[in-house]
């Protein structure tokens, strides 16, 4: 009887822990809804609210749950607490929140890198962290709010200006999951529907793939995946494999060790991350080598109709395209770095 009570105790404890909490942080996006409540109330409210993936709790009106439909990125927000639902998601270690030491009525003369319109001074800290060479920023009310990113940190007095000096976060990682020869194919579902990109290909299930030698575990422990390269393609197309992981992730550091990738006409090796409602929740192409391309295409896609302010396009090295850029036709928005 005692062992049964202990088992029930641990079971109830596991069920109660539905959210992971991150103090002094916020998710910089408008809420889908808000409800009064304590921090633990927020987790339950979010769990039963369609579309909610996380929340920010603040002390507003004695305690308010601000429900969010995305789980990041997190920004520094003193006294607020972010909660992220654990349900159906393997949590990945998040870096410590980027913090800036903020000073009122303070300026950092010169050292200008770029200025970005932003109505909230607190957002400047994350923009500085994401910009190579940025060490500090100032925020002023010019044009309804502007972040001035700086390469130096020497301050002076200036009424009405807010300065922030970046304290970079220390990132540490914990190994959560390994895909290797002992478990690889059991961690994936085999996609067998028609090719959404309209290629001449017949994606087969696991048993057919094994029978035809399209998948294998080699004697040295390496994983083999390939297309049928011995028979003439007929019907739906050349037999091949497309796998989707059974697990979902909300971020992390993913290390992929490749020995060989095919190249040449008709090949399309790829390693993608996609949202649950493709393409509306986006797509991140980590590895993509089409046909005879000699360079990897690293691409971030969105659904149609997205826009990006030109100021933000200066914060990354890739090429932004939204179907309006001369010479870069597109039906969606994407950032390509190759």
UniProtKB/TrEMBL annotation:
SMART domains (alphabetical): APPLE
GO CC list: extracellular region
Domain Apple: 100-178
Protein's GO biological process: glucan catabolic process; proteolysis
InterPro entries assigned: Apple (IPR000177), Beta-glucanase-like (IPR000757), ConA-like_dom_sf (IPR013320), Glycosyl_Hydrlase_16 (IPR050546), Pan_app (IPR003609)
UniProtKB keywords: Disulfide bond, Repeat, Signal
Transmembrane segments: none
Leader sequence segment: 1-16
GO molecular function: hydrolase activity, hydrolyzing O-glycosyl compounds
Domain GH16: 137-338
Alphabetical list of Pfam families matching this protein: GH16_XgeA (PF26113), PAN_4 (PF14295)
Stored Gene3D superfamilies: 2.60.120.200, Hepatocyte Growth Factor
PANTHER family membership: GLYCOSIDASE C21B10.07-RELATED (PTHR10963:SF24), GLYCOSYL HYDROLASE-RELATED (PTHR10963)
Protein's name according to its UniProt entry: GH16 domain-containing protein
Annotated source species: Acrobeloides nanus
Organism lineage: Eukaryota, Metazoa, Ecdysozoa, Nematoda, Chromadorea
């Amino acid at each position: 009887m005692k062992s049964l009570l202990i088992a029930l105790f641990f079971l109830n404890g596991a069920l109660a822990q539905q959210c992971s909490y991150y103090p002094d942080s916020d998710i910089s996006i408008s809420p889908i809804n808000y409800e009064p409540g304590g921090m633990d109330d927020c987790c339950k409210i979010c769990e039963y609210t369609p579309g909610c993936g996380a929340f920010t709790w603040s002390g507003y009106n004695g305690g308010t749950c601000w429900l969010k439909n995305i789980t990041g990125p997190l920004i520094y927000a003193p006294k607020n607490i972010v909660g992220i639902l654990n349900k159906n998601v393997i949590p990945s270690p998040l870096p410590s929140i980027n913090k800036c030491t903020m000073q009122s009525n303070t300026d950092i003369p010169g050292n200008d890198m770029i200025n970005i319109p932003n109505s909230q001074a607190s957002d400047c800290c994350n923009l500085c962290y994401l910009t190579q060479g940025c060490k500090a920023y100032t925020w002023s009310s010019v044009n309804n709010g502007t972040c001035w990113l700086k390469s130096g940190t020497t301050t002076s007095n200036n009424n009405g200006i807010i300065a922030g000096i970046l304290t970079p976060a220390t990132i540490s990682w914990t190994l959560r999951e390994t895909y290797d020869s002992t478990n690889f194919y059991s961690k994936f579902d085999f996609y067998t529907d028609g090719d959404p990109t309209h290629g001449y290909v017949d994606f087969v299930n696991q048993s057919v793939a094994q029978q035809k030698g399209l998948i294998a575990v080699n004697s040295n422990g390496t994983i083999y995946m390939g297309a049928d390269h011995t028979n003439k393609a007929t019907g739906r197309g050349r037999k091949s494999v497309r796998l989707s992981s059974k697990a979902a992730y909300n971020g992390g550091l993913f290390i992929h060790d490749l020995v060989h990738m095919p190249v040449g006409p008709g090949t399309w090796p790829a390693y993608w991350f996609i949202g649950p409602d493709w393409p509306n929740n986006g797509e991140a192409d980590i590895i993509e080598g089409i046909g005879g391309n000699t360079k990897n295409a690293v691409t971030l896609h969105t659904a149609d109709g997205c826009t990006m302010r030109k100021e933000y396009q200066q914060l990354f090295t890739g090429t932004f395209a939204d179907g309006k850029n001369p010479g870069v036709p597109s039906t969606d928005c994407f950032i390509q770095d190759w």
